[in-house]
Amino acid sequence: MVTATRPEPKVKLGPTQLLINNHWVESVSGKRFETINPATGEVICDVAEANAADVDKAVQAARQAFTRGDWPQLSPTKRGELQDTAFKAHQRSDL
User: Fold this and answer.
1) Residue 10's closest CA among 34, 33, 42?
2) Going by DSSP bridges, is the β-strand pair 32-36/23-25 parallel, antiparallel, or unpaired?
3) What global pTM score does this model have?
4) Any residues with CB less than 8 A from the CB of 68 and at least 6 apart, and which?
C-alpha cells in the first residue's frame, strides 16, 4: 500500500516581539518561549514572553493614544471608517 504525503507549507513568520506603542520590542525580562506546531511537535519559532511590566507599558501607551493622540479628536464615524480600512488591509496582507 502506498501512502501519499503532502509537503508541509512553510509558515511565514512575522515579528516575534511584543507590539507596544506601535513598536516591536523585546519583553522587559528578555524571556522568550517556544511556539510548537501541534501537528508535528516541532518548534516553529520562539517569541517574547510578556509579564506584568510589559502589560503595564502597553496599557500606558494605549491610554496615551486614546487621550493625547488624534484618536479622541475623531468622530465615531471616522473611527469606524479607519477601523474598517485597517481590517480590510489586514485581510489583504496575508498575515
Assistant:
1) 42
2) unpaired
3) 0.66
4) none
